[in-house]
Design a protein that fits this description.
Layout lengths: L9 H15 L3 H10 L2 H7 L7
Amino acid sequence: MQHITANTARKDFDGLLDTVYLQSIPGMVESIKEAREAPASERLEDIGWGADI
C-alpha cells in the first residue's frame, strides 16, 4: 500500500474537507453560485440578518 503525504496546514486541510462536504449536498454548488450573483442586500434579507450586521 502506498502512502501519500501532503504538507498542508491543518486549517487548509479542514477547508478542503468542508468544500468536499458542501459539494456532496445535492444542489448546494448551484445555490452558492446563485447567491454569489445576487446583490448583497438580497442575500442578507433572505437569511433574516437584515441591517443588524
